Please model this.
Amino acid sequence: MKVAVFPGSFDPLTLGHLDLIKRGSALFDQLAVAVMTNESKNPLFTIEERVAQIKEAVSGLDNVSVITTEGLTVDLMNRIGADYLMRGLRNTTDFQYERDIAAMNNFLDDQCETVFFLAKPEYQHLSSSLLKEVTSAGGDISAYLPANINEALKKRLMEREMLRVKKDNEKAR
Ligand code: ADP
Model:
C-alpha cells in the first residue's frame, strides 16, 4: 500500500494545492494532508480552521485525510506508515529550497522518498501569501480558491481591517 503525506502551511489552501491533492490522490492509495503548526509564519487562520476548511474542500476524495503535525515530517511519516512525501514545485526558487529539504529528510530517514509534482501552468504564480495580499487590497481572486475558503478569507481580512481601524481610533483619542 502506497501511503503519502503532503505537508504544508495551507494558510489558506489554494486551487494550486487542491490540484496537487487530486493528483496525489490518484497516484497513491492513501494521502494525508498534514497542516503544519508553524507559528513563525504568523498564520491568518488557526490550525483548527485550516483543517476544517481543507476537509470541506477534499470531501469528495475518499482516500484523502487531513491531519495536523508539528516537529519532523519523517517522524509523522513513521507514525502513520507513510513512505512518500509529496511536495509541489512552481519555479526554480521552490526547486532549490525543496531539494535541500528532500536531502535532509532522506538523511534523517533513508526510507523517506520525496515525490515532486510540477504546478500546473495556470497555478504556477499562486501562493497563499500573494492571494492574501491581493484580497486585502480589494482584488477578487475567487477563481483561485475553493468557494468555502474564498468566503472565509474575505471574512477574516475584513475582521482584521475592522480591528485595525478600531485600534487606530483608540490611539487617536
Ligand atoms: P510551506 O510553508 O510548507 O511552503 P505552503 O502551503 O506554502 O506550505 O505549500 C505547501 C506545498 O505546496 C509546497 O510544496 C509548495 O511548493 C506547494 N505549492 C504551493 N502553492 C502551489 C501551487 N500554486 N501549485 C502547486 N504547488 C504549490
Observations:
- The helical segments are 15-27, 47-57, 73-80, 92-108, 128-136, 147-172.
- The first helix runs from residue 15 to 27.
